[in-house]
Specification:
- This protein is an all-alpha fold and 214 residues long.
- It has two domains: 95 residues, RNA polymerase sigma factor, region 2, helix turn helix motif (Rna Polymerase Sigma Factor, Chain: A, Orthogonal Bundle), CATH 1.10.1740; 88 residues, Arc Repressor Mutant, subunit A (Orthogonal Bundle), CATH 1.10.10.
- The chain is built from twelve helices and no strands.
- The chain is globular.
- The chain starts with a helix and ends in an 8-residue tail after the last helix.
Length: 214
């Protein structure tokens, strides 16, 4: 696995040098392995297929134009997804400016305040057969969309795209400690957001284990 990873990174470096050397057609080969991740990140933030497609296309276009600014301090995938997230953020702020004015006034202590879930269940215990049902996947996508943006971003990168904490911190421009805190809170929030989508019956259907504080 390590050898394959290094080979892929080496291949990307070669493609980057070729694109910067004038072989612009090589950029598609460079970005193609990451197209799905770019789109998924945009869609889960925006919850709109047309907007996600536009943002993904804009991210790829900006990645091409700004490739000379890529310094290799992070992986190319992290860099291009960071561009997609920034594009999605700008789209959200443009559409919901009045909401973000109030969000900017949030207390800095919000990162450290404990979140007490309404339902003490671990979302990761959903059995695979439940995740394969389209209605559950749709409910899960809606639940993710209801998470506050900063928790949704971390959840998408860590638990959907499987980026490392360091890669997620780089993509979002935050500290690794913030990544861990936000991911924990997102995981605690998610069952509370998911439950309404199933009218209170999803816990029984999915046979989630309950952990009560009493």
């Amino acid at each position: 696995m390590g050898t394959l990873k290094h080979q892929l990174e080496s291949d990307e470096q070669v493609l980057i040098r070729r694109v910067l050397g004038g072989e612009q057609e090589c950029f598609y080969d460079l970005v193609r392995p990451h197209e799905r991740s770019i789109y998924v990140a945009a869609f889960l933030l925006l919850q709109n297929q047309a907007d996600a497609e536009e943002v993904a296309q804009e991210a790829v276009f900006k990645g091409f134009r700004k490739l000379s600014q890529f310094r290799g301090e992070a992986k190319f995938s992290t860099w291009i997804i960071q561009i997609a997230i920034n594009e999605a953020r700008m789209r959200l702020r443009k559409d919901r400016r009045h909401l973000y004015e109030s969000m900017e006034q949030e207390s800095a202590s919000d990162e450290t305040e404990a979140y007490v879930p309404r339902d003490f269940a671990d979302w990761r215990e959903v059995p695979s057969e439940a995740l394969q049902r389209s209605e559950f996947r749709n409910a899960l996508a809606r639940a993710i969309a209801r998470l506050p943006e900063k928790y949704r971003e971390v959840f998408i990168l860590r638990d959907v795209e499987h980026m490392t904490a360091a890669e997620t911190a780089t993509a979002l421009g935050i500290e690794e400690g913030n990544v861990r805190t936000r991911l924990l809170r997102a995981r605690l929030m998610l069952p509370d957001e998911l439950a309404p989508g199933y009218d209170g019956t999803w816990l029984t259907e999915c046979r989630w284990r309950k952990v009560r504080p009493w």
